[in-house]
Specification:
31% helix; nine-stranded mixed sheet; alpha/beta; 6 helices
């Protein structure tokens, strides 16, 4: 009889806690990963989506992935702490969806662009300012040296002054001068650079009521199992999602 009573008490306690557990889960910030392409399609996209889902699971936020532009309705967007354009290419949003995206940022939303996010929406000047630049060309993939110009940031404090890395290196046009640059590339370390001494590769800024972060890195499948890179991306996500930055003692760890 005593065992039965204890069992009833335990079951009742779990039932009482269940709604609270659901409430806590519902309060987790959400990230929308958008990977629609209307031009070149990167073969890393499936791997990257899985990596972002895992990143969210391990860092306290939920991740939805889509290639359906109808998700860009303000009623839907406002439930997300940030929207991530994952190697999008071409014109991926129609006029109505662009208006919804602008309203989302005006209302304090976050935006993150990965690599080909700058190869997107060339006829939308507002987007150019948001993402920070437009892609013009790139040489063959190769090793190059990145210069970390600001290490007082959650996306870069785990890096040294220089970061040697293999990737596909973009040349840019229409760079937004108002962004805060974190990483530049040393054009003397590889062939094909066309932006000279001021060739940014990662930056962030408060923009039009919201927050935006862009990293040029992320062309290869291997990027999404690279702890240094994913830690860099996580720092950017924390900024655009309005999450607490890592402390100096945890900055060197992946999760």
């Amino acid at each position: 009889m005593k065992k039965l009573f204890v069992g009833i008490v335990c079951a009742t306690a779990l039932l009482m806690l269940y709604p609270m557990t659901r409430l806590i889960a519902a309060d987790r910030p959400r990230l929308l990963v958008f990977s629609k392409t209307m031009g070149f399609r990167h073969d890393c996209i499936p791997v990257a989506k899985v990596a972002f889902i895992k990143l969210g699971q391990d860092n306290g936020f939920d991740v939805d992935t889509t290639e359906d532009a109808s998700a860009f309705e303000y009623k839907n967007l406002k439930k997300y702490a940030a929207v991530l354009f994952l190697n999008t290419t071409g014109n991926v949003l129609d006029d109505k969806q662009q208006v919804a995206m602008e309203k989302y940022i005006h209302k304090g939303g976050g935006f993150m662009g990965i690599h080909a996010a700058t190869d997107t929406e060339y006829d939308w000047p507002w987007y150019n300012k948001l993402v920070g630049a437009w892609f013009t060309s790139h040489p063959a993939q190769q090793q190059a040296t990145l210069q970390v110009v600001d290490k007082n940031n959650d996306a870069t404090r785990h890096l040294g002054d220089k970061w040697s890395r293999w990737d596909e290196w973009y040349n840019f046009k229409d760079l937004n001068p108002d962004v805060h640059v974190l990483i530049k590339i040393d054009e003397s370390s590889y062939k094909g650079g066309k932006n000279g001494d001021n060739h940014p590769m990662a930056w962030y800024h408060d923009f039009d009521g919201g927050r935006a972060f862009y990293t040029e890195l992320g062309h290869t499948k291997e990027s999404y199992s690279d702890k240094m890179y994913m830690r860099h991306v996580l720092g950017g996500l924390r900024y655009v999602m309005g999450l607490k930055a890592a402390t100096a003692s945890t900055a060197g760890t992946f999760y």
